[in-house]
Amino acid sequence: MSDTTLTAPQTDEVVPTGVKLTDTAATKVRSLLDQEGRDDLRLRIAVQPGGCSGLIYQLYFDERVLDGDLVKEFGDVELVVDKMSEPYLDGASIDFEDTIQKQGFTIDNPNAQGSCACGDSFH
């Protein structure tokens, strides 16, 4: 896993952040991109208002990198975080779980002070 420093694409300025993508999650992202036959997509994580606790994660593939976006590479997978979401995600870890009970991406975020019973939103 190549864990490079998160930087803004338009400059060489180093941005202090700690968003991580585990090896398992990076492998799953690469597998999904290969299935789609796309090499122009990145995994984007964002925090938006919503859910019963006030904030909700958005995790999706995006072909765009916008001004102010922060891009971090994990091997051949790029993780994109927008400038407004980054403070909420500093120190967060994205993993992929594949068990009989659950399959999907999980986010362990030390900045979340609490979450709702469904686990989809936080504050």
UniProtKB/TrEMBL annotation:
It comes from the Bacteria. It holds the Pfam family Fe-S_biosyn. Residues 19-120 form the Core domain. GO terms for biological process: iron-sulfur cluster assembly. Gene3D superfamilies: HesB-like domain. GO terms for molecular function: 2 iron, 2 sulfur cluster binding; 4 iron, 4 sulfur cluster binding; iron ion binding. InterPro entries: ATAP, ATAP_core_dom, FeS_cluster_insertion_CS, HesB-like_dom_sf. PANTHER family: IRON-SULFUR CLUSTER ASSEMBLY 2 HOMOLOG, MITOCHONDRIAL. This is Iron-sulfur cluster insertion protein ErpA. It comes from Schumannella soli. The gene is erpA.
